[in-house]
## 1
Amino acid sequence: MTDIGRRRFVQGALGTTAFLALPGRVVARPQAAGAAGSLPDRYPPIFARFPHLLHGGDWNPDQWRDEPGILEQDFALMEKAGCNTFSVGIFAWAALEPEEGRFEMGWLDDVMNGLAKRGFHAFLATPSGAKPRWMSEKYEEVRRIDAQGRRELHGSRHNHCFTSPVYREKVRTINARLAERYKGHPALSGWHISNEYSGACYCTYCLAAFRAWLKTRHPSLDALNRAYWAAFWAQKFQSWEQIDPREAPMDGLQLDWDRFVTHQTVDFMKNEVAPLKAATPDVPVTTNMMTFFGGLDYWRFAEVCDRMAWDAYPQLYGDWRVAASLSMAHDFYRTMKGGLPFLLMESTPSNTNWQPTPRLKRPGQHRQEMLLAVGHGADATMYFQWRKSRGAFEKMHGAVVDHEGSDRTRVFQDVAAHGALLRKLDAVVGTTVRPEVAIVNDWESRWALGLTQGPRQGQGGWDGRFDKEYIRTLTEHYRPFWKLGIGVDVIESLSSFDRYKLVVAPMLFMLKPGVVERLLAWVKRGGTLVLTYLSGIVDETNIVFRGGWPGGGLREAAGIWAEEIDSLLATDTDQRIVAAAGNPIGLAGEHPVREYCERVHPEGASVLATFKNDFYAGMPALTVNRHGAGRLYYLAARPAEEAFHDGFARGLVRELALTRNLDVELPEGVTVQKRAGGGRIFLFLHNFAPREQALDLGGLRLVDVADGTVLTGRVTLPAYASRVVEKA
Ligand code: GAL
């Protein structure tokens, strides 16, 4: 039985209400249930017997087998770099099984033994990210069929079918071999499953699996036709076999396909993990993910991973706003497993070779990027890659060891300095972040909004989907809290809201079953919910609610009716949100908007701000309504500038008396993040500005964990400085 298809009873937010999931649906996340008290104060280290922060990265000794002496040089350099953990064998299938059924693992024995000898750890990879050529040739089904029906060529990577029985069998076999050979090996500390799962295949196996999966979600073909609004343009299906996900423009069908791709990838991963867990049940498994990649609902992977891990290639380049967006991603990877420290599995120690202008890190920036991750809950800072390859696609990609080959490079020295610092941070291991604020990042809702034609066209995104700026919008709501040094969890709509004082749910377009009930029960008990334009429009099948927006029961609770949504032209620059005089959250001034404005009627809510111009001048732009002991805010437009978000967030912080990590004025570009546990509190102070900035700590005394310096009174932070301090 699969995850999504499993029937579940979940203890809901009220503690007394059980939400019944219909077949094919998940209505609440079990791990999220429970109050703050039931969550661990401190977590175990990633590797049970290694109570230190992990440091290291992707290492590809399989590429260097023809170059004698490199292995020994690598081991010596690893020690100098203060590294302790390496991901090995990620794309090594052709080296591990050069011919079908002939396994060559002697070279990997040398690698594993060498690591063990020095007390290093391996995240041993399953090699499924790149299949060997003989396999593509002999079993063409392992190669994907693209949306145009063409079988892909062998080359490249990440281009295998997730359903092919042959591929699944071959993966199980090689994984079982690896697990059997290295179980109990002192270097085997974790499993790195495949690499950056992504993409889809439209072969007959995949289409058949899709149709079978659809039957678990839709009780009958009639129900499916209703869910897809298939009467439109004569689209009704008469048989399951007629269903093809490549058929535009049925957005309900597209949405189910997106869900299925996630389901099938998770299922593929389970197939990978099964032989590993059978042989090595205590070795943690993870897979490396890509920020907020639009193609997979990462929430569903949290159930298969022992730890979450991701690959971060920010273009920080001295821009603190990028640092804030990066932080939101770190917070997301921590939140996916309820606060469990995650791994920054890949990052570049220098620059990449694929960004448009891969600028070198300025002095201080490497340490800062790494400590930013640690401050948000990473217990590992790892790189792509350890040694720079001499040929092929990534020969110009930053690495710890450059082609020059020594420890004398600036990059190596930066890495070694970071390694030395990490050794002083053992006390941070397993501590976590327990925010009072959460922001909702819901993949299915994002997909539904992106797939819906209108109310205006999407902007596209880095992942090529029309996502209507969902992630950017989340970032804009997140940033003010980061600037104030207030921790934020990044949850989904199925998460429990219990432990938060404030939940911000921008553009929560889709309301899945049970979400409104749980949200409102939480608000009634005192929670504060922020909703925005384009919220509560469709149910889980992407069918619009009747009875006015925001639907599904939110209209009554929010005390407003959003009658129409206006789509602004780029030249419509004069519309403004005007704060009402004496509004209780202290919002001031006028704020320009972009793209979306709704015509909202108050139905009981108080109006905190109105629109300035056009035919809806004077209508509400921001409202609040009481609901039980809590409140619902509704923002009816997309603010164009940060000042609105800053003012709104500051008002909420005051009203809810939210705790800041450090109660001092923070200059622009400076943030303070906090990890706590086991009775200790660590603060991560960062100055992302390219110039020195000062903080006034007053009488507060903070102790620098690295060198014992006491910080008090006026403290300066040089450009790109980060310090880890302990609060007494
Ligand atoms: C990652 C990938 C690595 C490497 C890296 C380069 O997305 O997992 O294998 O290609 O990018 O930045």
## 2
Amino acid sequence: MKNTHFCKAFITFASLFLVFSCKNDQANSKPAIAADKAIEAAVERTLDRMDIREKAGQLVQITLDVLTEYGQDVKPVQLDRVIGEYKVGSILNVCKAAPTRAKMEEIVRAIQDKSMEAIGIPDIYGLDMIHGATYYKEGTFFPQEINLAATFDPAHAAAMGKAIGYETRAGLVPWVFSPVMDLGRTALWPRHWESFGEDPYVQSVMAAAETRAIQGSDPNHIGLDHCAVSLKHYLAYGNPASGKDRTPAYVTEQDLREKYFAPFKACIEAGALTVMVNSAAINGIPTHANTKLLTGWLKEGLNWDGMIVTDWADINNLYERDHVATDRKDAVRIGINAGIDMIMDPYDPAVADDIVALVEEGKISRKRLDDAVKRVLRVKYRLGLFDDPVWDTSSYELGSAETVQSALDAAIESEVLLKNTGGLLPLSKGTRILLTGPNANSMRCLNGGWSYSWQGSGTEEYTEQFNTIYEALKARFADVRLVEGVSYDNSGSDWQADKAVDIQGAVAAARGVDVIVACIGENSYCETPGNIDDLSLSANQTALVKALATTGKPIVLILSEGRPRIVREIEPLAAAVVDIMLPGNYGGDALAELLCGDANFSGKLPFTYPKYVNSLHTYDYKVSEHRETMEGMYNYDATMDVQWPFGAGLGYTSFEYSDFKVKNTRFKAGDVISVSLKVKNTGKVAGKEAVILYSSDLVASVIPDVRRVRAFKKVELAPGKETTVEFSLPANDLAFVGADGRWTLEKGEFRLSSGGLSEIVSCTKTKVWKTQNIK
Ligand code: BGC
């Protein structure tokens, strides 16, 4: 059995190598990051003085638990083993939950002292700072990426990136595993909320803004207010066929390049220094073994000199889970030869011995070893760690008033009003409110995973100073009564399970109020523990809303959740619906401001909200997926029936679109298409509107997507005011990946549209690009 695995692995690897060789001619000629001569020379000098054990150690990353024996203090004996003996070059993670930044500083200082003494090379410490400095006790927590996408304003992604870079550095950590780039295209997947929604363009714009803000403007010299990013998880991690975390994806070549690769390309071009790999497999090939994607597309295709790190234990997964390697050593051989530069083992530093042996046996070439080591050293030099392995942190201020205001502003613009029958909202401050549901009084539910701890559990210990929805509503409305009716069991490990504690009590309490605000959805979770089998909202929460509806009181549903749980049965019972997703520590305050009308809604859904558990769609489906009934005796129709479409979102005012104009309606590759339109605030209050420009390819040689987002801009208008929004759309953006795998802009008609207005434009000449990337 073992032998069969070995043969298969060898054949897969060999064929990957062939594909990769054929692609070598397709690389970008311009480097993604222009090399700095002084840094390159220093990297070479350092490499020259390293022996093979030191080189191997630089390719290994270990979790902090190993140094601390699961406690909070770094143990000298463990430092001697991990850094002294194995020369390990990187440590990650926190123990259990968020330390204070002073504690983090103490940990990193001990590691750096040992690294400099034992190997003369600084460690690079990495943390999952996902929606702010979310692994420090005092970090500022922004809304999760899914919420930031709903703002349709990259300024919010930039504000979060700035806070992540600066606040993380305050604890002596120079590297963050952010932004998340997976695209939330599979609603069941437990990491749906970690990305900027389902659209590749929105993901590209937001993540590139975040990347620039985390790293600063010069990727060769990352200052002390910034960190290196790790774009994750390359590639197509967010599309598992089963909807379960870390299970295989099956993706067409077209979608891989057009939708999944494009955001990575945008961020690499924005200067991203490192990339983390998709734990799972694409089209049957574990991504950690995929030479074509790692070395071919990413390193060579983009001419990128950055570093690729594995995800957690994913070299081990090549043999333990995926059966493409016979043992760990074989897995290390496959991974490093495919293009991996750093192995997040994360528990066994002796993986370095495997690297040494493989090099000595000629199974990893010295050239590949040196290339990987140089990529690791280059990041350390670019971060300035050789000069300053540690630095003075006394002037850093976490949670400054300005940063907190940015997090609150982002939360306000991220909560999406989906229904408001008869203008029920805003509620006057004298409204008597029954607040109910398991999410009504929980900071954990507002934050989601990666918040103080991996699962977002234990949040209450840290969040005394922040307001739950209940606390925030009490501060704005005179009469708020809380009867949860249903609650989560936070004591065990089955956090998703809820129980009906007092549905009848909630119903009774509703009789004396004007409005019911029901906060339903999900408890926090992350990765595999968040796997579920059924996207439906829980039976208890559904029963709660149904019981409340019998009172005849108007219901406002607050959806507080990381992925869109099916609410088809109860949506008609609600007069108003707000999807707040995971708005972070200031999300309760934001909701209170919005519900009372002190602020106006302007968020729009960055994903398609499904209506049925077995009909999960994205807005850019193929035209053939939605058809009217055919003529004749067979009914070959197909329908797209969703709860709320991508881009849905109301406010307390109305906007009118007019004068949609395209200057150059006939164009060819290389041209820029100029589009303008007018937007007017026709309501009575000020508001913001995300203006989204779509294109539809009317006829193409592969079935076209029904529409694609090509640009967006957020405008703010006082009542009665009008503005002209202009877009400059590169014609090349209308290209698609053809059946032969080449980027193609085809002659023919396209519809450009925004806000219900549209114009037909024509490409006058077909162009097929020779290289794998357009620009
Ligand atoms: C996750 C990554 C994370 C890594 C380190 C993995 O389980 O998939 O997103 O960066 O752990 O914590």
## 3
Amino acid sequence: MITRRDLLTSGVALSASSLLAQSTLLRDIALPGKARGISNPADIAIAPREQLLFDFGWKFTFGNGSDPSKDLGFGFGQSDFSKVGDFKFAKAGFDDSKWRSLDLPHDWAVELPFEHDDKGSDDSQLRSHGYKPLGRRYPETSVGWYRREFDVPQSDQGRRICVEFDGVFRDALVFVNGCFVGRNNNGYAPFCFDLSDLLSYGAKNFIVVRVDASFGDGWFYEGAGIYRHVWLTKTDPVHLGRWETTVRSTVKGSLATLALSTLVQNVSREAANGKVIWKIVDPNGTTVAGAESPRQLIPADGSSTCSATVKLTAPRLWSVDEPNLYHAIASVEVDGTMRDAERVKFGIRTAVFDADKGFFLNGKSLKIRGTCNHHDHAGVGSAVPDRLQSFRLSVLREMGCNAVRTSHNMPTPEWVDACDRMGVMMMCETRQMSSSPEGMQQLEAMVKRYRNSPSIILWSIGNEEWLLQDEMAQQGARIAASMVQRCHELDPTRVVSAAVNGDNEKGLSEPLDIVGFNYNTPKYPEAFHKKYPRRPIYGSETSSALSTRGVYVTDKLRNTVNCYDGAADWGETPEAWWKFYGTREWEAGGFAWTGFDYRGEPTPYGWPSINSQFGIVDMCGFPKDYFFYYKAWWRNEPSLHVFPHWNWHGREGDEISVWVYSNLDEVELFVNGKSIGSQKVPRLGHVEWKVRYEPGSIEARGSEDGKVILTEKRETSGPPVSIRLTADRTEINADGEDVTILRAEAFDREGRPVPTADNMLEFTITGPGKIIGVGNGDPNSQESDKQPRRSLFNGLAQVIVQSTKTPGEIQVEAGRGGGQGPGRTQRNLVIISKQVESRPSVPVIQQ
Ligand code: GAL
């Protein structure tokens, strides 16, 4: 989105009054000549571009996947699509008063109760979705309808007005003003429709989206509904093509050359004579360079590529330590009038994979310390507010993670944006490995949309396509070759890979620029490196370690996995995989499966588990003990973590394993103040003791050169008597989008944390805020994500609070649930929701 400031520095003359009048842009301009479908276009004043958030004020109801009479009558007879404009549900007069009001993003799956089909039938679909009733066997909860009324002013005549969906799960049918507009048949790629011809100008308009989540794209929880943002974009008929503006940098010494390019589209019946002007804005917001393309003809109903080059001396490079971001403002000018403009974020950096020496960012060797992640979070499922993306990334960064893989689908723009801003590299993966029109469309959308993002260091065309590796190896090689070639055409600056579980010697692996290994450490990567020493290698998916936060016993009856050394049969502990990938010069590093626990695929158990236990942090982002292994060996700062907790009531006299993760030289362990010995810490390893339990404390003291640098203590606590609520931010924006993430933690009378507390809490909120989700990280909890109550799991729970558009003071209190809770919070948590200018959005029509 372009801000006024960008425009003021973009060199285009602006009138002060229009700056006041337009929220996103520019100034009104008269459209010369004839625009498509307009009788007297010369009279119409047009603002060059507005991008309006279309998230607020929707209505929602369930349809039905098998019974048309419960699906707004859709498909009841043969003739639904027979006459244009006849879909009554997308016209005035349709009664949606009984539909529920909501704002997007929305995931209806997370709201559904858990369901276990114990009739002995195939349970795999339920299991994959974390026991949410989605799929053709659950027609009543697998189809959702969204409806929205919106005004389009008369003054918009002549503009191109598009609706853009960042992602809908899954098959979407879009209707506007009674007309069928189009469909999208996957769950992750963005799609957009030009509505200009269908709209009523100076009148009310109606949009309806039927979303059918009966089919899935994956084998993990995918959510259901319009779970990403929606936009209404208004442009001049002469405008910049969608995701066509590219900035490609080459760096030589202290000089960067930026190749600038864009596509100007002319959706009118008259040719235009135009040029594109670029301004380059540095990380401080200063315009540091400018360029213009030659003036050229943009044919009627055609397009023209415009390009230019600029040079920057001593550019501020993007890196994981200093994620410097530049912006390019590209504007199209025709006959001295600006028609369209956009701001594109980019970074200047080099990223090189080398077969002998691994990965280099800006010429410096850097191991990829990565994690794979799905995209759902506790409380909200796949409808993750933007701010929660940054929160999730900051949790991963805290343990030294410098890269994420968007397994196994195209990410939401806000996840990419967070990586760009926070300096986390990215392996960006498409969902469908196919060169079919559908597969290519998904791939192209991903590459075009994100190719300016400096965080992305490699594209992935897919994950574990067994058939294309072996049985269909010839097709696999051809499909992969087409996909790799398309990536290169759209983005010649990056290498292309895939996540392969196998030897990588044939099929789809042949055309890859760089080879990714899933598991099989060290067997396949080592053998491959010996045989193909010129091909760079990294671990596209490693580890699959398993653990239940705060639990130290693997119990198949309780569906728990101990936090010391749990891992899937095909996987390995953090220590095992990192000792391999972290130590060989030719390995670029790798991506552990997974950063966060995720719903669905509840490995290693089934019902009543509803989420995976692969996460290094749980569904809420609360660290498990493995987190501290990574923190010790992925970060440079001194670090020390001792576990387990020391509340083993009933196990007095039993031997308990005490482990310490630390990157210090030596650790000494004290039990009730008495040393039981000191141990040298092996590089990339840990130290452990066996201790007979008696209540009291254990304390680890870590030293370097004989000097104690860090200590950490675990104390036996009493029962919980109070709850402390803390917020990741106590000041948020009153824009109806921002969130703060609260941590509820139990303490005993002496103020010690109670690591085993499991009390039910009730949350009360007053003021201009709402609780949009709760969680506790328990993989076996079937409590609601949406009710303002949640039990603690091993001492912790999470509450996600969202602002409204009204500023003010929000107060949250955690209280006793069911009469046996640990008491009230000592005092209410206060969050200030401060007045801000919200992003421009489509006004909500009050009913
Ligand atoms: C991999 C797969 C992941 C996940 C993981 C669990 O084979 O790529 O999506 O299922 O196994 O270990």
